[in-house]
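# step 3/5: fold
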Amino acid sequence: MEYISNTLNNLVHQTAFFNLTWGNYVMIAVACIFLYLAIAKEFEPLLLIPIAFGMLLVNIYPDIMLSFEDSPNGIGGLLYYFYKLDEWAILPSLIFMGVGAMTDFGPLIANPKSFLLGAAAQLGIYMAYFGAIALGFNGKAAASISIIGGADGPTSIFLAGKLGQTNLLGPIAVAAYSYMSLVPIIQPPIMKLFTTEEERKIKMGQLRPVSKLEKILFPIVITIVVCMILPTTAPLVGMLMLGNLFKECGVVRQLTDTASNALMYIVVIILGTSVGATTSAEAFLNAATLKIVVLGLIAFAFGTFGGVMLGKLMCLLSHRQINPLIGSAGVSAVPMAARVSQKVGAEADPTNFLLMHAMGPNVAGVIGTAVAAGTFMAVYGIM
């Protein structure tokens, strides 16, 4: 009987119930909320489901993120090895290649003014940078946090790793991906607050046709120009443009299909679960995380504001030929931000079609956020 009693006692004490803290239970609840939003409300489920499940796993079984150095048998946890691919900037770069292979850059080529709107939407990044410094973060940490304002999860992870801010990578990545998922909730109130109904009803003329030669030359030229000025952007901008070149050149259909489908989804699964797994209660439930979440929201709001306000100025200068709503798409959440511009415009006038016009600033925002990351790396001497 004693043997049975001891065996049962050991089994009971091996369960997670005897090892979890109140913080773990809080994070498990947060993970369940994220899963609800992803499944029931369909808020970017492609991202939120793996992130939430990684969050769930690490707070039930922390050793799933155990490094091999700390492991008694020299073998790290499964998600630790996934996470190293984030730290080494491999997964963010592959995500960019997939985005490039899936995205039509034609609207940006047809309307180069969209670059200005994409640049204006980076206002949130620089606001968050100075805000983070004011809250006591060092320069590199502030730079890593600020990229959340571009609504760009891969670039946030990339920059945090390059600047050596891996201790903040989890909160930064979760905040960035959460705000990307919540674009349809966060952006519309800001867009409506700073535009009139008459402005939202403005119909834009049809974009000019873009030749195949232009579409082929664009990724090559952008890679040369941007990477010559900021070589540190090569992993992101280079992969983005390589993916788009696959798509537009028309001679590597297999590579295009792989980059935009199988490879993209594999990378999203690995990146999402590893990002979620950085949110252990010990690492996540602290004052620094709260500051990051708040700064990220403020940054994202200012990014949307900056794009809309430049859109209003361009609307005025063009004699109402530009709908200012497309400026909000200058953040880097492709193509979700462009869809939100379309949705808000259609609410004012159901016959208004802004999606393709908004894709120009949206693609410009992806490039702009990568350039902002490259600028910070140059400032801090990171090669």
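# step 4/5: annotate
The mean pLDDT is 91.
# step 5/5: archive (pending)
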